[in-house]
Amino acid sequence: MTVPLAIRVAFMIALALPLLSIGAGPKKASADPLVVDLSNHLVAITTGFTGTNVLLFGAVEEEGDVVVTVRGPDQDMVVRKKERKVGIWVNSESARYKNVPAYYASASNRPMDIIASPEVLLDYRIGLQNQRFIGESKLSDDDQKVYREALVRNMQGAGLFGERPAKISFLSNQLFRTDIHFPANTPTGTYTINVYLIRDGRVASVKTTPLVVSKTGISAEVYEFAHRYSALYGIIAVIIAVVAGWIASVVFRKR
């Protein structure tokens, strides 16, 4: 059963009350400097799924900057270069990359280059430019750059890589929120959401929370059958196409 958003928000506020109170020193010392949660930890993909937003909200003990990263499951990807031959665009050379996230997005309350130094962002793999895609060793540095840029461009075109960080809004000095958008073509799997509290250019606290994207209903059964019995699924698809074509031809012949 899904917990209503209002109840989850109320629970988060209750957790945040010790952070917001102006208590004695011992209370502050025992308080968690960063508390976060999601409006939903499951994105259910049904037949009519057109995309959705998941609310991330939280509280900080003291003022600071907040950065959020969302990384989908890793996958291998092939990037192909197209060449024009005899007036036709055809695939020529290609490069394979490992550890490419199926989805990547980020959010921050201020520009990241103001929040932290490039070294800190690199150390924590914050930002699309700091994601480590493992390319084939045979590629030169120049080719690595060209193919990587093409990979990022393709994923951004598909809406699976955020082109720029989303906005984190502070509702007060301590409470913050942001929306994470998942498009209709979001891949299934377990996603890792990291929330960083940064003060004076240094990471003061990190919280990690998972989110699962899963197919449900009839679409899930068809998807599982197609992957588990791919050969049989292909044969059935061909038979259905042939039968549908035959029925259509009979109907039009009678008319």
Automatic annotation (TrEMBL):
<dbReference type="InterPro" id="IPR019088">
    <property type="entry name" value="CHP02186-rel_TM"/>
</dbReference>
<protein>
    <recommendedName>
        <fullName>Transmembrane protein</fullName>
    </recommendedName>
</protein>
<keyword id="KW-1133">Transmembrane helix</keyword>
<dbReference type="Pfam" id="PF09608">
    <property type="entry name" value="Alph_Pro_TM"/>
</dbReference>
<keyword id="KW-0472">Membrane</keyword>
<feature type="transmembrane region" description="Helical">
    <location>
        <begin position="231"/>
        <end position="252"/>
    </location>
</feature>
<keyword id="KW-0812">Transmembrane</keyword>
